[in-house]
Amino acid sequence: MDKIWIKDLEIFAYHGVLAEEKRNGQKFYVTVSMDVDLHAAGMTDDLDKTVNYAEVCELIRRTMQEESYDLIEAAAENVADAILLAYPQIKMVHVIVSKPGAPIPMDFDTVCVDITRGRHIAYLGIGSNLGDKEAYLDYAVDQLNKDEYIQVTKVSSYIITEPYGDVEQDDFLNGCLEIETIYSPQDLLAVINDIEQGAGRKRLIHWGPRTLDIDILLYDQEMIMEDTLKVPHVEMAKRAFVLEPLAEIAPYAYHPGYHKTIIELLEILQNKKD
């Protein structure tokens, strides 16, 4: 991927844990590398085909000066977020915030924080079998789109499916979504849980009825095995109500655990039933 670099942008700001740092301020230096496709700009010599680095510099200055942070980690995080939110064509941003005047009683050059943030493709499964099922699924899509860190890029058809498990309950309405997000998987999970709660979701019975269920199925090619989050979703390859709508919007999405595409997993599952 092509890159635009801004190196050692000098900004006077008021960040630090100590009271005198917030009172007196000091110089910070910000270096940014932005991953962006520059081919069209190079071929046309057109500023509209690239990222205006003068505007980015001003955005960095505002972000660094409009708020006082205790930590340069927070300053770097907010600079990265500001750039990604302002420029959808930037796929990834690398931010270094340097603090040469850090209160360290030794000889040193500078203290730096170095972070990389970017856009991620995730696939979500959505389902409901209580109340107005379609309205609950539409609510999930709407709430995700309202979050500035998320863009819903594809929505599958909704399909009626029999409930999974041994609990007697109404049929489900299920679908899948493709999203682009700046959130980490853990932060995305927190947002999803809030949306479920907003729809009145109560986790009373395992595989029981619910107003709204949202699962992270895939997140880039990451494999996560934590107590609260497992990606890819551990049951997705066994569930036609997941694979069918997912194959509609992303047939060639790749499952990093099974090393197969979604359409391949669906075919395997269908052959088992025949």
Overall description:
The structure is a single chain. This protein has 274 residues and is of the alpha+beta class. The chain folds into two domains: 116 residues, GTP Cyclohydrolase I, domain 2; 154 residues, 7,8-Dihydro-6-hydroxymethylpterin-pyrophosphokinase HPPK (Alpha-Beta Plaits). The chain contains eight helices and 13 strands. The strands form four sheets. Strands 5, 6, 7, 8 and 9 form a five-stranded antiparallel beta sheet that branches. Strands 1-2-3-4 form a four-stranded antiparallel beta sheet. A hairpin with a 4-residue loop joins strand 12 and strand 13. Helix 7 runs antiparallel to helix 8. The longest helix is centred in the N-terminal third of the chain and has 15 residues. The radius of gyration is 23 Å and the shape is elongated. 30% of the residues are buried. The mean pLDDT is 93.
* Overall CATH class of the largest domain: Alpha Beta
**Sheet/helix structural class:** alpha+beta
What would the CATH topology of the largest domain be?
A: Alpha-Beta Plaits
Radius of gyration: 23 Å
Low-pLDDT stretches = none
Q: What percent of residues are in strands? A: 25-35%
Number of strands: 13
What's the CATH H-level superfamily name of the largest domain?
A: 7,8-Dihydro-6-hydroxymethylpterin-pyrophosphokinase HPPK
Question: Oligomer, anyone?
Answer: single chain
General form: elongated
